[in-house]
Amino acid sequence: MLVKALRRRGIPTLPFVDDFLLVLGPSVHRGWQVLSLVDSLLLRLGLSRHPTKGSWFPTQSLTHLGVHVDTVRGLFTVPASKLASLRHRAALVLQYARSHRRWVSKRSLASFVGLAVSLSLPLPSVRLWTRALYDVMAQRQGWSCDVRLTHAAFRDLDRFTHLSASLPELAGTPLWPSNPDQTMATDASRLGWGATLGPHLLARGSWRPHQQLEHITTLELRAVLYGVEAFLPHLRNSTVDLWVDNTAVMHSLNTWRSRSRHMMPVLQRIHKLCVTNHITLFGRVRYVETSRNVVADALSRVLDRSDWALDPELVDRLMALWGLPDVDVFASANNAVVPTFFSAFHDPLSAGVNGLAQPWHPFRRLWLNPPWDLLPRVLSKLAAERCAATVIAPYWPSAPWWPAITTLACEWHLLPAHQHPFTPASGFPGLRSPTWRVAAFNVVPPRC
User: Fold this and answer.
1) In terms of residue numbers, what domain contains 332?
2) Least enclosed by CB within 10 Å: which of 4, 17, 40, 174?
3) Average pLDDT of the chain?
């Protein structure tokens, strides 16, 4: 009745059993008015407040249910005493486990987990760090038994012993939701992943062969990870609204937890990215129907028919002959021949987007295996920037660009006819290797 009466008067109230937190108002004067109203309501209900319990003076900073509430900074934070208790309790469990071959009392472990989870409001990370502990407690039924810590549980307990107020995770969580700075959407299919940031920035990639075997929900979560990585320079120090069309992924990201042992490592990587780069994503993930997630969905279903990987033996032979390139100008994470590469779309691992738009002259040697319809533009840029390069192109002496490439090249070799020089980099069946002959050209400025 007290809570209803206060809320009817427009006074926000947070009740929990016999603990109450009142949001009093924008000023000290208003705070005293509300406190007077509470006293009169209690009197009418035949109740009275204890004179020494609770905080009966308007304040902007207090501890409620073990969580510090700071309305000046607008944050929920972990009190120093709770943080010290959490470290101490974790150290006691670890100490016992070390002397008993990782066996601990299930009841004592549950007691620690309860303390940790009680701080999930100001410290959402505890949901990630207690997943392995819940798995351990599920090993045996009943409470009067011992359970054995796994290596993951041991590692997570050790993490609690090293918590300090200076860690980014302990900066606190906002009291009030803020307006988003960015809007991102992601999606995944069996072919690959796609992501958009605002209306103009696009990212995509194809799955590696081993990733194609993963559950689609794990792939949807990977799409979020790769989207955040691809757009990281644009996302730092911002609040992001994320749209996904998978409710399991939405729940995992909004709670930082998952029962899937395959999803948890991906979730932990996303969390680390967000914390270290000050990206607010927690609690801001929304579900959107696939029919409305059009662009990200389309990007995830692109079958890149130019995503060919040159036979590794031929790559090694050409590198030994003409030198190791510094950058693969037209590549993806699946077919790049060196770690530094430019991709067609934003990619977590690429050094830039659109190889033709990037400067080539800072690099000692380029690896150029472009979509062959781009060869005239590639050769024009190569001549203008006077770069050394290994160029892969079809053997097509009647092509308009053939005189240009043979003029630029010091030497060239026709690749063996009995081999299939290209294979689909993503490993998808149905893409047939080109049947025409292929040549490799060595371009070294100035002309030899």
Assistant:
1) 308-443
2) 17
3) 87
